[in-house]
Amino acid sequence: MRTRMPHDGVFTRIGRSATHGVGVIAIRPIPAGTLVFEGESELVVWVSRAEVRRMPRAIRALYEDFGMVWGDRLGVPPTLNMLSVGWYVNHSDTPNVEAGEDGRFRPLRRIRVGEELTADYRTFVEEPLPFRPKTSPRRSSRATRRVTA
Question: What is the rounded distance in angstroms from the CA atom of residue 136 to the CA atom of residue 92?
Fold first, then answer.
């Protein structure tokens, strides 16, 4: 029996986005419906927006750039030193992945090698986005993609 290797089930990596700085790029074909970030930690710490507003600008930016919006709170990993690849999925009005009821990303269609993975952040929150969506994908604050307590 073959031992599971660290790259087993890995479909993506962080790379240069054609539309905004850093994004998530497919390193192998991803069939529609595949759980893209299998093994990614689902642990989330919830911090009030009021508390985040009192933080120094550089620290506040981490929460605003990567925090998942849920009412008056932002969800982030237990340490912001542990942002996995899934936290870098950029916004697009025409996404190729979506978060299911379980909050985990799956492709809407087959994704080709070299293609950037994008999600429509508007499907995750019931409030206006903190940026104006463009016709092409753009990176901004993370929106809720996981529902955890």
Answer: 6
Reading the block at residue 1, the tokens are 């029996």
Parallel, antiparallel, or unpaired for β 22-26 and 12-16? Answer: antiparallel
Phi/psi at 38 (5° precision)? -60, 135
Plot region of 96 (φ>0 → left; ψ -120 to 50 → alpha; else → beta) = alpha
Considering the entire predicted model, what is its pTM? Answer: 0.77
Residue 141 and residue 133 in contact, taking contact as beta carbons nearer than 8 Å: no
d(CA 30, CA 111): 5
* Longest CA pairwise span in the chain (Å): 53
Q: Give dist(CA 105, CA 96) in Å, integer.
A: 10
pLDDT digits (tens, 9 = 90+) for 117-146: 999 887 766 655 555 555 443 333 344 343
